[in-house]
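Journal club side-thread
Mid-discussion, someone asked how the predicted structure for our own chain would compare to the paper's figures. Pasting it here so we can look after the session.
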Amino acid sequence: MEKDQIFKLNDRGVLYINGKDAKEFLQNIVTNDMNKVTNSSSCFSSLLTPQGKYLFDFIIVKHKQGYLLDCEKNQIENLLERLNFYKLSSNIEILNLSNEFTVAVLSKEKFLALDGAKSEEGNTLKFLEDPIFLDPRSKELGARILMNLEKLDITLKKLNLKSVDPNKYYNLSHKLGIAQINTDKLKNKIFGIECNFEELNAIDFKKGCYVGQENTSRMKLRNKVRRRLLPITTNNKVSIDSEILFEDQKIGKVLIDTPYPFALIKLF
């Protein structure tokens, strides 16, 4: 990732949750601790089934009186539906701002050149009144900007950035073992802790209850994580549920196929 490049991620969507119960609402259902999300800090988190299996993952960013959720766009409507399911009598409003906000990525080096920037995952600043933050999963993924398209064009000029093919960014993400494309194919097939969410700073084992917390904590406590979601590379075409073999033994299966394949692999 070069210093003066920026990647526009048109396959990302944005939800906005505000209202006096917004923080408590999210705290009760997501895997991370909402106390970490401030004007200067953002976090990666997920929403699991009651059994602890994967449903959604997203980045949570403080914005005005509420929170922005940066999620894969093809899952936005399903995520919105699930959040409304848990809403009950909470005093919150959930808006789909995917047509108003855009998500883009710039290099870690460019971010650190900004006034007040720190080399800490999740470190968040304001730029033209909108959030820009170092990716909370890994600093190697650079920094993200959430703002409307008109402001983004202004940002490109102010920071002297050149828009380039986002496939370069997703190739890096795949190499780092961080799935961001077609993650809906993981639903109900893998436990959240098997998605490397602990290593990606998405799970807080010290916070109170959340959906799927019991199984997640038990697997952590009893060291029962025997499989991991890992990137695979091959010259052959792969398909969902294809077996992964090592010395004629099945060690895993493909969960995400093209263009950036991932498989659930047994640990030895």
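Post-session note: The chain has six helices and 15 strands.
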